[in-house]
Amino acid sequence: MIPKLHYITQGNSVKEHLENIQKACNAGAELVQLRLKGVSEKKILKAAQEAREITAHFQTRLIINDYFKIAREVKADGVHLGKTDSCPTVARKHLYSWQIIGGTANTMLDCEALLDKHVNYISLGPFRETATKTDFPPVLGLKGYTAITDILKTGTPIIGVGGITTEDVAAILETGISGIAVSEAITHDFNAIKVFNQLLNASATAEQRYSFE
Questions:
Q1: For residues 51 and 63, what is the distance between their CA atoms, to the nearest angstrom?
Q2: Are 55 and 3 in contact (CB under 8 A)?
Q3: Alpha-carbon gap, residue 91 to 100, rounded angstroms
Q4: Alpha-carbon span 156 to 109, nearest angstrom
Q5: Residue 12: is it exposed, middle or buried by C-beta count within 10 angstroms (0-12/13-18/19+)?
Q6: Is 164 within 8 Å of 192 (Cβ atoms)?
Q7: Of the given ranges (58-67, 109-118, 124-133, 180-189), which has the lowest mean pLDDT?
Q8: Which residues touch 175 (CB under 8 Å, ≥6 apart)?
Q9: Rounded-to-integer distance, Cα 149 and Cα 108, Å
Q10: In this structure, are residues 94 and 73 in contact, taking their beta carbons and an 8 Å threshold?
Q11: Does 138 or 116 have the greater pLDDT score?
């Protein structure tokens, strides 16, 4: 089962990312994605080990961005693969059977390709422009989400991502998107996790079930 709210870590240093994971877990996050860029693999492994300790204490799920071998080593709950990262099919061979794989998509074709590779969830975006990414694919917005979900009939959870705030949630859910991934709005105010969860009705009983179909 995939929680409806994903917190993607932010921070100016590895230490800040870990501090923010602690804050997110304290605030009730059910899933955290450790996303470190421009850092050595050795440092990412160490950070992932510390993140696993924090999240395990809170029974929060941990996803590692990009590095599937690190996800396996620290026994994270899964890995998230961007469009230029490893192929999900390759990653699957290296992961435990219980670990999940998420993939990034911007178009209908991206979604179909990821479904063919049996990902457990698709992160679809960007919803709007955001400061966390510089290499922008086209912004989708509500119209883009609706256009894709109307055609893409799948039981695999589709997670909206990209500059999403609490004000956007109701309209996004109406498009058929099943959950959201948030970075900036939560890092700015960790109390927002409670608000997002209420808007998503994201209790343990309301999670999205994933399938390998």
A1: 10
A2: no
A3: 10
A4: 15
A5: exposed
A6: no
A7: 124-133
A8: 142, 145, 146, 149
A9: 9
A10: no
A11: 116
| Of 195, 191, 98, 10, residue with least CA distance to 180 | 195
Non-local (6+) Cβ contacts of 14 within 8 A are 36, 39, 43, 46, 47
pTM of the model: 0.92
In angstroms, rounded to a whole number, what is the distance separating the alpha carbons of residues 213 and 208?
Answer: 14
Neighbours of 27 (CB within 10 A): 17
Mean pLDDT of 111-133: 91
Tens of pLDDT, residues 136-181? 688 999 999 999 999 998 999 999 999 999 999 999 999 999 999 9
Please name the residue that has the structure tokens 């996790």. 193
Q: Which element (helix H / strand E) includes 25?
A: helix 14-26
**Is omega for the bond preceding 157 within 30 degrees of 0, making it cis?**
no
Domains of the chain are: 5-205 (3.20.20.70)
State what percent of residues in the chain have pLDDT above 70.
92
Confidence of residue 132 (pLDDT cuts 50, 70, 90): low
In whole angstroms, what is the distance from residue 177 CA to residue 119 CA? 16
